[in-house]
Amino acid sequence: MEYREVVLDMRKRLIQVPIDDELLGQLDLLSKARKVPRAETIRAACRSLVLQTKEAELERRYVESYKAQPEAPIWGEVGALLAAEVWGQEDWDEPG
Fold this sequence. Notes:
By secondary structure, the chain is mainly alpha-helical. It is 71% helix and 0% strand. It starts with a helix and ends in an 8-residue tail after the last helix.
């Protein structure tokens, strides 16, 4: 199934959202520059917000899990030794 077919199968609902004139003007300029309809610009912004919110929640859960069960100090030491071993083999001199 091609992407176009998937998009055509998706049902969209029409909603009304009050928006101030300044933001609407910015959306119109952005839509024109991207050569897409205003509605697509708004959908892309909504998708981006949903993704950012999910990523922020995953980050929060990741941090909380480390607070609940911190990494043993030995793993940091091992990581530092391995990094030094790998980085020690790289040429850090400026090309010239």
